[in-house]
Amino acid sequence: MTHATHASRTTHESAARRGSDRTEASDATQDAHRAGPAGYRELHRRFAPVFAGIAEGALERDLHRQLPFEAVARLDDAGFGALRVPVEHGGAGASVETFARLLIDLAAADSNVAHLYRSHFGFCESLRWQDDGVRRDWYARVLSGQTVGNASTERGGNALGTLNTTLSRDADGWVLDGAKYYATGTIFATHTRVSAAVPGEAGRRFAVVPTAADGVRVSDDWDGFGQRLTGTGTATFSGVRVADADVFDRVPGTAEAVHEAAFFQLVLLAVLAGIARAARDDAAATVATRTRTFNTGSGLPFREDPLIQQLVGRIAAKAYAAEATVLAAARSLDRALAAEPDGPGEAPPEAHLAELEVEQAQVIVPELALGAAQQLFETVGASATSSAKGLDRHWRNAQTVATHNPIAFRARSVGDYFVNGTLPEGLNAIGEAPAASPAGGAPAGP
Q1: How far apart are CA 366 and CA 268, in angstroms?
Q2: Cα distance from N-terminal residue to C-terminal residue, the chain
Q3: Which of 429, 264, 252 is nearest to 359 (CA)?
Q4: What's the pTM value of the predicted model, to 2 decimals?
Q5: How many whole angstroms separate alpha carbon 67 and alpha carbon 53?
Q6: Is 330 a residue whose pLDDT tops 90?
Q7: What's the CA gap between 73 and 79, in Å, rounded?
Q8: Cα–Cα distances in Å, from 307 out to 289, 299, 382?
Q9: Between 186 and which of 192, 196, 266, 443 could a Cys-Cys bridge form, CB atoms 3.0 to 4.6 Å apart?
Q10: Is residue 250 very low, low, confident or very high in pLDDT (cuts 50, 70, 90)?
Q11: pLDDT, tens digit, 9 for 90 and up, residues 29-40
């Protein structure tokens, strides 16, 4: 289904103007180690009512394909987008682990809403490596409620490692031209970060532009069967003016690049863990209220049937394992950020190890989330397939998120490290692969 450009424009323009399940003892222990930055307990109390309100409308939004503009506005007004802004700049200063826990909470309420913030938080992470003036400016914007979407991937026609979107200079400064797909979150955001090539230069840069700027067009034409409300559609840029201060360099292999790559994937894993939790909660609620049973069963109410209890227990275990894995990976990113690099701009060894932890999580967390969503249907039978109940959305959403980064490539990378000591290495940009060699082996490189 395709919507008009800037669907619900009134809500979108207002955004532009604005610019769990843990024990009390565990929470108290974690907060005690975070003097200054806000801990999970404090932030959970702040956002839990907002998450609950978002959860109430999640099913209806999915059934009727209603983009969650109102949900996003509530989160922006509550300061959700500033979670990772450092305390010294007026933000919550939440650790990566605390952020991941809150994102899991939000994803359990509505995985679409959690997912669409991925680009914004990724951009906020990149600010840590910018100069003081850029940090002050953008942290202030984020604290005021401004958010940043994503426009990186091109649908086709660009060679692997290159981009067709260009950032060129004329007498008046930078000009951005091109088209992107998978522009997740951009339709809800005040700005979007666009990856672009500078003609005559290797690599890429990022241009951050207002979504309401002349020459920017955002369409909700994403046609995936899951995560349908993330605004993951087309963004086009025609002669968009970009200020010097809003053009950012990106050098592969630096601390910024290594951290951000892992952080972006951690967000997807947190979304999957939230979906698994939602499947657990829906399974438990459905079984607890069911009065009908099968003539081939034990004759007991479902809530008392040991076999059904076992099924719910297995779903709960998958959700627990997914969340525990994600939080372990989040802690590795916190350790990497606290580590000292060997040289200016270099990624410390801890950053590469954190990336490997995230890659290992990417191999197993999708399997756990998909298993929980699939097993949900074993608990009550055919009635669970009613479209009105929307229980299928958990599987559809988990499957869609799981495809973002093919698991086979992540597993291969992990195996290569443990066998050969090879660190993960990403390519500059997604694109068309070079032709295969005549023998059908490895691609013939440029």
Answers
A1: 10
A2: 40
A3: 264
A4: 0.88
A5: 15
A6: yes
A7: 10
A8: 16, 12, 17
A9: 192
A10: confident
A11: 344 334 478 899
